[in-house]
Recover the amino acids of this structure.
């Protein structure tokens, strides 16, 4: 079977359950064909909904994985990319769908914020009642199957990317396998165990949890709020598991406060999905590092914890040495001997790690972030950030940020 035949077969299977449509585009994202009714076809649909920039960014980053395109009112499309060697040959889009029950009033208000003609807005409003509500776990599986139909490659659901036209990444209408939550508890325990161990296998455990449950079982008209609630629950579990894995409580709680604030700032379900992925990876990596540093003395570990909690302050070698009652020379020598780097280099690394979180997960300006982390000047912040990451703060935000 060629790509066209596989896509036809795949979309035919989908339409046995959900009324999703297929759009085929060329390498310049010009519409070639679709099975969508003519009254819903708009030649500039992906431009009008703010998707064109997101698609170009995805391709320019060299990412060949499927992309879930999200709008602020929860209307989703899935894109898969067809390549010939290293050159983009085309794109295939299925949708639209909802993953939660949004009120028509909320959607109509959101539509007003897009550059859409009155006629097209009226058409979309009339057709919204026919858009299927599909559990996010099912949509992720569709993304994987669409990718296979286009590329012939097998991937897992954690490889699916999310991007949003509302800012710069899922809500859930819960679909339980049975009414008994069979298997969910075991899957959650496997995930928490992976976090406690700082294991990269947490992605597989998370994928299993998602396949069984979509989070808190509520029937809300605001699917973004539902997704935020699920993210906060996962954040709570993650912080507790990380402390059980050895991460100091002061660090775990400081991270919790930071991520809870960022979750509330999310404007779309895509933002919340991407942030959830980042916080999980961050906690797991910190637990892993903590377990690797198990041989560090209690004194130096206490300083590492102090730095983590007070990373936004202007920390000095003399202050940290004084906390332990050491001379600066002895403390500096002992710190480097146990951690492998100097005190100032370690503080710089941790400040840059925090800056990366703020750049990708908040709307603070670069100057505000520089001030927040007590860098002496904006230029020094740029210099430190480039030394640690190989790119400027503005380039990092453009690549990974949501603003």
């Amino acid at each position: 079977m060629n790509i066209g035949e596989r896509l036809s077969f795949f979309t035919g299977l989908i339409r046995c359950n959900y009324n999703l449509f297929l759009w085929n585009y060329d390498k310049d994202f010009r519409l070639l064909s679709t099975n969508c009714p003519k009254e819903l076809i708009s030649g500039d649909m992906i431009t009008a909904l703010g998707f064109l920039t997101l698609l170009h960014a995805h391709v320019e980053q060299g990412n060949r994985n499927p992309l879930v395109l999200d709008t602020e009112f929860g209307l989703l499309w899935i894109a898969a990319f067809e390549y010939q060697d290293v050159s983009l040959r085309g794109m295939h889009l299925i949708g639209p769908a909802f993953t939660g029950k949004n009120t028509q009033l909320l959607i109509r208000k959101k539509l007003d914020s897009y550059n859409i003609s009155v006629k097209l807005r009226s058409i979309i409003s009339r057709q919204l009642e026919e858009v299927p509500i599909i559990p996010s776990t099912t949509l992720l599986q569709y993304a994987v199957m669409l990718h296979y139909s286009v590329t012939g490659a097998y991937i897992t659901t954690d490889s699916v990317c999310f991007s949003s036209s509302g800012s710069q990444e899922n809500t859930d209408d819960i679909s339980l396998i049975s009414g008994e939550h069979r298997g969910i508890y075991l899957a959650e325990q496997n995930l928490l165990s992976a976090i406690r161990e700082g294991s990269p296998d947490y992605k597989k455990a998370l994928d299993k949890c998602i396949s069984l449950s979509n989070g808190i079982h509520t029937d809300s008209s605001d699917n973004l709020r539902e997704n935020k609630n699920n993210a906060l629950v996962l954040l709570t579990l993650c912080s507790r598991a990380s402390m059980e894995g050895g991460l100091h409580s002061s660090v775990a709680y400081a991270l919790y406060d930071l991520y809870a604030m960022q979750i509330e700032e999310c404007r779309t379900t895509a933002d919340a999905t991407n942030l959830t992925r980042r916080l999980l990876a961050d906690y797991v990596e910190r637990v892993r590092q903590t377990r690797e540093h198990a041989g560090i003395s209690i004194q130096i570990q206490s300083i590492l914890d102090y730095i983590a909690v007070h990373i936004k302050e202007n920390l000095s070698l003399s202050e940290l040495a004084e906390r332990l009652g050491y001379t600066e020379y002895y403390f500096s020598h002992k710190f480097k001997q146990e951690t492998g780097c100097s005190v100032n280099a370690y503080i710089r690394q941790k400040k840059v790690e925090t800056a990366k979180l703020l750049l990708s997960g908040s709307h603070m300006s670069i100057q505000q972030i520089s001030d927040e982390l007590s860098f002496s000047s904006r230029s020094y912040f740029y210099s430190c950030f480039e030394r640690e990451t190989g790119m400027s703060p503005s380039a990092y935000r453009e690549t990974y940020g949501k603003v």
About this structure: The longest strand covers residues 87-98.
